Amino acid sequence: MSKGKQVKALPSPDLNQDISLELIAIAIKARRTQQGLDLKTASMLSDVSVVTLSKIEYASKGVRMESVLKVMRALGIKLSILPWESDNA
Fold it and tell me: Which residues of 21-57 are buried (b: 16+ CB within 10 A; e: fewer)?
């Protein structure tokens, strides 16, 4: 954690809801703050800019999926895709 102002941990969101940009943003910010990481430190660990991380945490449109995945990996957030049934049954 960077020296300076302490990061206030946010509560984890309800993850039992349909995925959305807003849910991903809230989950990322909650995880980052729970780990005590400020934006600068988390952006360095994720290899994205502070501006990009901030945009991700505010669910701004136009952020590259690759950047979101980098941040999620760095923070230990896993995204799963469950198998689906074929429509050709």
Answer: eeebbbbbbbbbbebebbbebbbebbebeeebbebbb
Contacts of 44 (CB under 8 A, 6+ apart): none
CATH code of 43's domain: 1.10.260.40
Domain ranges, residue 33? 21-75
Summarize pLDDT for 61-85 with one digit per residue, the tens.
999 999 999 999 999 999 988 899 8
Confidence band of 1 (pLDDT split at 50, 70, 90)? very low
Greatest alpha-carbon pair distance for the chain in Å reads 59
Q: Is the pLDDT of residue 23 over 80?
A: yes
